[in-house]
Write a structure and sequence with these properties.
Largest sheet: 4 strands, antiparallel
Radius of gyration: 19 Å
Structural class: alpha+beta
CATH architecture: Alpha/alpha barrel
Strand content: 5-15%
Strand order of the largest sheet: 6-7-8-9
Length: 349
Protein backbone atom coordinates (compact mmCIF):
# COMPACT_ATOMS: atom_id res chain seq x y z
CA UNK A 1 0.00 0.00 0.00
CA UNK A 2 1.14 3.52 -0.72
CA UNK A 3 -0.29 6.35 1.35
CA UNK A 4 -1.19 9.45 -0.64
CA UNK A 5 0.58 11.92 1.61
CA UNK A 6 -0.32 15.52 0.96
CA UNK A 7 2.70 17.03 -0.73
CA UNK A 8 3.57 20.10 -2.74
CA UNK A 9 4.61 18.02 -5.72
CA UNK A 10 4.91 21.04 -7.99
CA UNK A 11 7.81 22.23 -5.82
CA UNK A 12 9.85 19.05 -6.04
CA UNK A 13 12.75 19.24 -8.51
CA UNK A 14 12.80 15.46 -9.08
CA UNK A 15 10.41 12.52 -9.32
CA UNK A 16 10.15 11.30 -5.74
CA UNK A 17 8.30 8.10 -6.55
CA UNK A 18 10.87 6.86 -9.07
CA UNK A 19 13.64 7.34 -6.53
CA UNK A 20 11.65 5.50 -3.84
CA UNK A 21 11.08 2.57 -6.17
CA UNK A 22 14.81 1.94 -6.26
CA UNK A 23 14.47 1.06 -2.58
CA UNK A 24 11.29 -0.93 -3.13
CA UNK A 25 12.86 -2.94 -5.93
CA UNK A 26 15.70 -3.94 -3.60
CA UNK A 27 13.57 -4.84 -0.55
CA UNK A 28 13.14 -8.56 -0.02
CA UNK A 29 9.78 -10.24 0.59
CA UNK A 30 10.85 -10.71 4.20
CA UNK A 31 11.04 -6.94 4.63
CA UNK A 32 14.86 -6.87 4.71
CA UNK A 33 16.45 -4.00 2.77
CA UNK A 34 20.05 -4.65 1.64
CA UNK A 35 22.44 -1.92 0.52
CA UNK A 36 21.79 -2.98 -3.08
CA UNK A 37 20.73 -6.13 -4.90
CA UNK A 38 22.88 -9.04 -3.80
CA UNK A 39 24.62 -6.96 -1.14
CA UNK A 40 24.67 -7.08 2.65
CA UNK A 41 22.16 -5.51 5.03
CA UNK A 42 23.17 -3.50 8.07
CA UNK A 43 20.67 -2.28 10.68
CA UNK A 44 21.60 1.44 10.52
CA UNK A 45 21.34 1.75 6.76
CA UNK A 46 18.20 -0.37 6.73
CA UNK A 47 16.53 2.08 9.13
CA UNK A 48 17.60 4.91 6.82
CA UNK A 49 16.05 3.07 3.87
CA UNK A 50 12.83 2.57 5.81
CA UNK A 51 12.71 6.30 6.49
CA UNK A 52 12.97 6.92 2.75
CA UNK A 53 9.99 4.62 2.17
CA UNK A 54 8.04 6.49 4.85
CA UNK A 55 8.76 9.83 3.17
CA UNK A 56 7.52 8.47 -0.15
CA UNK A 57 4.34 7.07 1.42
CA UNK A 58 5.12 3.37 1.14
CA UNK A 59 3.98 2.62 4.66
CA UNK A 60 3.24 -1.09 4.42
CA UNK A 61 6.71 -1.67 3.02
CA UNK A 62 8.25 0.51 5.73
CA UNK A 63 6.46 -1.48 8.41
CA UNK A 64 7.60 -4.73 6.84
CA UNK A 65 11.12 -3.41 7.35
CA UNK A 66 10.43 -2.58 10.99
CA UNK A 67 8.97 -6.05 11.49
CA UNK A 68 12.11 -7.64 10.05
CA UNK A 69 14.25 -5.62 12.44
CA UNK A 70 12.09 -6.49 15.44
CA UNK A 71 12.24 -10.17 14.56
CA UNK A 72 16.04 -10.12 14.23
CA UNK A 73 16.76 -8.14 17.38
CA UNK A 74 18.94 -10.06 19.81
CA UNK A 75 18.07 -10.71 23.42
CA UNK A 76 20.31 -7.89 24.68
CA UNK A 77 18.61 -5.32 22.41
CA UNK A 78 21.30 -5.24 19.73
CA UNK A 79 21.62 -6.42 16.15
CA UNK A 80 24.58 -7.96 14.40
CA UNK A 81 26.57 -5.59 12.22
CA UNK A 82 25.41 -7.09 8.95
CA UNK A 83 23.35 -9.83 7.40
CA UNK A 84 22.87 -11.53 4.08
CA UNK A 85 19.49 -13.08 3.32
CA UNK A 86 18.57 -12.73 6.98
CA UNK A 87 21.63 -14.56 8.28
CA UNK A 88 24.41 -12.73 10.15
CA UNK A 89 27.72 -12.37 8.35
CA UNK A 90 29.41 -10.23 11.01
CA UNK A 91 28.48 -10.92 14.64
CA UNK A 92 29.91 -7.67 15.97
CA UNK A 93 27.19 -5.65 17.75
CA UNK A 94 27.53 -1.90 17.18
CA UNK A 95 25.95 0.62 19.53
CA UNK A 96 24.99 3.22 16.95
CA UNK A 97 23.50 0.61 14.63
CA UNK A 98 21.30 -0.66 17.44
CA UNK A 99 20.13 2.70 18.80
CA UNK A 100 19.13 4.16 15.42
CA UNK A 101 15.88 2.19 15.36
CA UNK A 102 14.49 4.90 17.67
CA UNK A 103 14.98 7.56 14.99
CA UNK A 104 13.24 5.45 12.36
CA UNK A 105 10.32 4.63 14.63
CA UNK A 106 9.77 8.22 15.73
CA UNK A 107 10.12 9.42 12.14
CA UNK A 108 7.47 6.92 10.99
CA UNK A 109 5.18 8.02 13.80
CA UNK A 110 5.52 11.65 12.75
CA UNK A 111 4.61 10.70 9.19
CA UNK A 112 1.59 8.59 10.17
CA UNK A 113 0.46 9.59 13.67
CA UNK A 114 -0.14 5.88 14.30
CA UNK A 115 -0.15 5.26 18.06
CA UNK A 116 -0.66 1.52 17.70
CA UNK A 117 2.56 1.31 15.68
CA UNK A 118 4.40 3.29 18.36
CA UNK A 119 3.09 1.01 21.12
CA UNK A 120 4.05 -2.05 19.10
CA UNK A 121 7.64 -0.90 18.62
CA UNK A 122 8.25 0.33 22.16
CA UNK A 123 9.93 -2.79 23.54
CA UNK A 124 12.23 -2.91 20.51
CA UNK A 125 13.24 0.72 20.96
CA UNK A 126 13.66 0.46 24.73
CA UNK A 127 15.92 -2.56 24.63
CA UNK A 128 17.97 -1.11 21.75
CA UNK A 129 18.69 2.09 23.67
CA UNK A 130 19.48 0.15 26.84
CA UNK A 131 22.01 -1.95 24.93
CA UNK A 132 23.80 1.13 23.61
CA UNK A 133 23.84 2.83 27.00
CA UNK A 134 25.27 -0.30 28.60
CA UNK A 135 28.54 0.63 26.88
CA UNK A 136 28.62 4.24 28.11
CA UNK A 137 31.63 5.26 30.19
CA UNK A 138 31.78 7.59 33.15
CA UNK A 139 33.09 10.35 30.86
CA UNK A 140 29.96 10.13 28.72
CA UNK A 141 31.28 8.49 25.56
CA UNK A 142 29.86 5.20 24.34
CA UNK A 143 32.09 2.42 23.11
CA UNK A 144 31.36 1.62 19.51
CA UNK A 145 30.75 -2.14 19.74
CA UNK A 146 30.88 -5.50 21.40
CA UNK A 147 32.96 -8.13 19.67
CA UNK A 148 31.48 -11.46 18.56
CA UNK A 149 32.98 -12.88 21.77
CA UNK A 150 31.05 -10.34 23.85
CA UNK A 151 33.90 -7.99 24.78
CA UNK A 152 33.46 -4.22 24.65
CA UNK A 153 35.80 -2.55 22.17
CA UNK A 154 37.09 0.51 24.08
CA UNK A 155 36.99 2.88 21.10
CA UNK A 156 34.52 5.74 20.73
CA UNK A 157 33.49 7.19 17.37
CA UNK A 158 32.25 10.77 17.05
CA UNK A 159 29.88 10.03 14.19
CA UNK A 160 28.49 7.01 16.01
CA UNK A 161 28.08 8.98 19.24
CA UNK A 162 26.22 11.70 17.36
CA UNK A 163 23.87 9.12 15.86
CA UNK A 164 23.23 7.70 19.33
CA UNK A 165 22.58 11.21 20.66
CA UNK A 166 19.82 11.69 18.08
CA UNK A 167 18.51 8.21 18.83
CA UNK A 168 18.18 8.87 22.56
CA UNK A 169 16.37 12.14 21.87
CA UNK A 170 13.84 10.29 19.73
CA UNK A 171 13.53 7.47 22.27
CA UNK A 172 12.85 9.97 25.05
CA UNK A 173 10.15 11.59 22.96
CA UNK A 174 8.58 8.20 22.25
CA UNK A 175 8.68 7.33 25.95
CA UNK A 176 7.02 10.59 26.85
CA UNK A 177 4.25 10.11 24.27
CA UNK A 178 3.57 6.59 25.56
CA UNK A 179 3.80 7.56 29.23
CA UNK A 180 6.85 5.46 30.03
CA UNK A 181 9.47 6.70 32.50
CA UNK A 182 13.10 6.11 31.63
CA UNK A 183 14.97 8.09 34.30
CA UNK A 184 18.42 6.84 33.28
CA UNK A 185 18.18 8.04 29.68
CA UNK A 186 18.14 11.80 30.29
CA UNK A 187 21.39 12.01 32.29
CA UNK A 188 22.99 9.62 29.81
CA UNK A 189 21.99 11.96 26.98
CA UNK A 190 23.41 14.97 28.79
CA UNK A 191 26.72 13.22 29.47
CA UNK A 192 26.97 12.11 25.86
CA UNK A 193 26.19 15.58 24.55
CA UNK A 194 28.81 17.10 26.82
CA UNK A 195 31.40 14.62 25.55
CA UNK A 196 30.55 15.42 21.92
CA UNK A 197 30.86 19.16 22.54
CA UNK A 198 33.81 19.38 24.92
CA UNK A 199 35.86 16.16 24.89
CA UNK A 200 37.11 15.56 21.34
CA UNK A 201 40.16 13.75 22.71
CA UNK A 202 37.95 10.84 23.78
CA UNK A 203 37.01 10.00 20.18
CA UNK A 204 39.03 8.09 17.59
CA UNK A 205 41.11 10.81 15.84
CA UNK A 206 41.65 8.70 12.72
CA UNK A 207 38.03 9.29 11.72
CA UNK A 208 38.47 13.07 11.47
CA UNK A 209 39.22 12.66 7.76
CA UNK A 210 35.59 11.56 7.26
CA UNK A 211 33.12 14.34 6.56
CA UNK A 212 30.54 12.76 8.84
CA UNK A 213 32.74 13.57 11.84
CA UNK A 214 32.48 17.20 10.71
CA UNK A 215 28.72 17.65 10.44
CA UNK A 216 27.11 14.81 12.45
CA UNK A 217 27.47 16.66 15.78
CA UNK A 218 25.35 19.40 14.18
CA UNK A 219 22.95 17.03 12.45
CA UNK A 220 22.11 15.34 15.76
CA UNK A 221 21.63 18.62 17.64
CA UNK A 222 24.51 18.23 20.10
CA UNK A 223 26.26 21.27 18.59
CA UNK A 224 24.01 24.25 17.87
CA UNK A 225 23.98 27.99 17.40
CA UNK A 226 27.24 29.87 16.95
CA UNK A 227 29.26 26.72 17.63
CA UNK A 228 27.51 24.99 14.73
CA UNK A 229 28.17 27.92 12.39
CA UNK A 230 31.84 28.00 13.37
CA UNK A 231 32.19 24.26 12.87
CA UNK A 232 30.71 24.44 9.37
CA UNK A 233 32.97 27.35 8.40
CA UNK A 234 36.12 25.78 9.87
CA UNK A 235 36.05 22.65 7.72
CA UNK A 236 34.05 23.75 4.67
CA UNK A 237 37.01 23.84 2.28
CA UNK A 238 38.31 20.54 3.64
CA UNK A 239 35.22 18.58 2.63
CA UNK A 240 33.12 20.52 0.10
CA UNK A 241 33.77 20.49 -3.64
CA UNK A 242 31.92 23.53 -4.91
CA UNK A 243 29.27 22.72 -7.47
CA UNK A 244 29.58 18.96 -6.90
CA UNK A 245 28.96 17.90 -3.31
CA UNK A 246 30.68 16.61 -0.19
CA UNK A 247 33.69 14.33 -0.02
CA UNK A 248 33.35 11.11 1.91
CA UNK A 249 36.94 11.51 3.11
CA UNK A 250 39.05 14.64 2.89
CA UNK A 251 42.01 13.02 1.14
CA UNK A 252 40.08 11.24 -1.62
CA UNK A 253 38.87 12.87 -4.89
CA UNK A 254 35.35 11.48 -4.53
CA UNK A 255 32.07 13.12 -3.58
CA UNK A 256 29.17 11.02 -2.35
CA UNK A 257 25.53 11.93 -2.51
CA UNK A 258 24.57 10.36 0.81
CA UNK A 259 27.05 12.59 2.65
CA UNK A 260 25.97 15.54 0.51
CA UNK A 261 22.34 14.93 1.48
CA UNK A 262 23.25 14.57 5.14
CA UNK A 263 25.10 17.89 5.04
CA UNK A 264 21.92 19.37 3.54
CA UNK A 265 20.02 18.03 6.55
CA UNK A 266 22.63 19.43 8.94
CA UNK A 267 22.56 22.88 7.33
CA UNK A 268 18.77 22.92 7.40
CA UNK A 269 18.88 21.71 11.01
CA UNK A 270 20.90 24.76 12.06
CA UNK A 271 18.67 27.12 10.09
CA UNK A 272 20.77 27.66 6.95
CA UNK A 273 18.11 26.37 4.58
CA UNK A 274 19.21 28.67 1.74
CA UNK A 275 22.65 27.08 1.59
CA UNK A 276 21.08 23.64 1.98
CA UNK A 277 18.89 24.28 -1.07
CA UNK A 278 21.93 25.39 -3.03
CA UNK A 279 23.73 22.12 -2.35
CA UNK A 280 20.60 20.16 -3.19
CA UNK A 281 20.69 21.91 -6.54
CA UNK A 282 24.20 20.54 -7.13
CA UNK A 283 23.14 16.93 -6.63
CA UNK A 284 19.52 16.73 -7.74
CA UNK A 285 20.38 15.54 -11.26
CA UNK A 286 23.02 13.01 -10.18
CA UNK A 287 20.83 10.01 -10.94
CA UNK A 288 20.22 7.21 -13.38
CA UNK A 289 17.41 7.23 -15.90
CA UNK A 290 15.23 5.14 -13.58
CA UNK A 291 15.41 7.82 -10.85
CA UNK A 292 17.93 6.06 -8.60
CA UNK A 293 20.74 8.29 -7.38
CA UNK A 294 24.40 7.66 -7.98
CA UNK A 295 26.37 6.63 -4.92
CA UNK A 296 29.26 8.92 -5.78
CA UNK A 297 31.30 10.67 -8.43
CA UNK A 298 35.04 11.16 -8.76
CA UNK A 299 36.62 14.45 -9.72
CA UNK A 300 37.92 16.02 -11.83
CA UNK A 301 37.30 13.09 -14.21
CA UNK A 302 33.57 12.83 -13.28
CA UNK A 303 33.36 9.03 -13.15
CA UNK A 304 30.29 7.58 -11.42
CA UNK A 305 31.58 5.18 -8.76
CA UNK A 306 30.55 2.75 -7.47
CA UNK A 307 27.79 1.84 -9.88
CA UNK A 308 25.53 0.09 -7.36
CA UNK A 309 22.20 1.78 -6.64
CA UNK A 310 22.45 2.09 -2.88
CA UNK A 311 19.16 2.05 -1.00
CA UNK A 312 20.46 4.31 1.75
CA UNK A 313 21.69 6.93 -0.73
CA UNK A 314 18.24 7.12 -2.29
CA UNK A 315 16.65 7.24 1.16
CA UNK A 316 18.68 10.18 2.44
CA UNK A 317 18.07 12.12 -0.79
CA UNK A 318 14.36 11.65 -0.08
CA UNK A 319 14.88 12.80 3.51
CA UNK A 320 16.78 15.89 2.36
CA UNK A 321 13.97 16.70 -0.06
CA UNK A 322 11.46 16.29 2.76
CA UNK A 323 13.40 18.76 4.91
CA UNK A 324 13.54 21.33 2.11
CA UNK A 325 10.13 20.90 0.49
CA UNK A 326 7.83 19.81 3.31
CA UNK A 327 6.71 16.47 1.91
CA UNK A 328 5.68 15.00 5.30
CA UNK A 329 5.20 16.01 8.91
CA UNK A 330 8.59 14.46 9.68
CA UNK A 331 10.50 16.80 7.40
CA UNK A 332 11.88 18.96 10.22
CA UNK A 333 12.78 16.12 12.58
CA UNK A 334 16.48 16.98 12.53
CA UNK A 335 16.09 20.72 12.93
CA UNK A 336 17.26 22.20 16.20
CA UNK A 337 14.08 24.28 16.35
CA UNK A 338 11.95 21.12 16.27
CA UNK A 339 13.37 20.09 19.63
CA UNK A 340 12.95 23.42 21.41
CA UNK A 341 9.54 22.60 22.99
CA UNK A 342 11.23 19.61 24.66
CA UNK A 343 13.84 21.54 26.62
CA UNK A 344 12.61 19.81 29.75
CA UNK A 345 13.81 16.58 28.11
CA UNK A 346 16.97 17.71 26.38
CA UNK A 347 19.38 20.25 27.78
CA UNK A 348 20.91 22.00 24.81
CA UNK A 349 23.70 24.54 25.04
Amino acid sequence: MKLNIARRSYDLPFELDRTAKSILNTQRKSGEIPWSRGNITDPWDMVESIMGLSVAGYLDQARAGFSWLAEHQLGDGSWYSNYRDGKPTDRTRETHMSAYIAVGVYHHFLVTGDMSFLHGMWDTVRSAIDFSLSLQTGEGVIYWAKSPEGHADPVSLLTGASSIFMSIKCALRIARILGHRQPAWQPALEKLGDAIRTKPHLFDPSKARYSMDWFYPILCGAVTGIDARRRIARYWEKFVVMGMGVKCVSDSPWVTFAESSELILALDAMGNTLLARGIFGWIVDKRYEDGAYWCGETYPDAVVWPEEKMTWTNAVVLMAADALYGITAAGKLFTHEFWQPARELIRLK
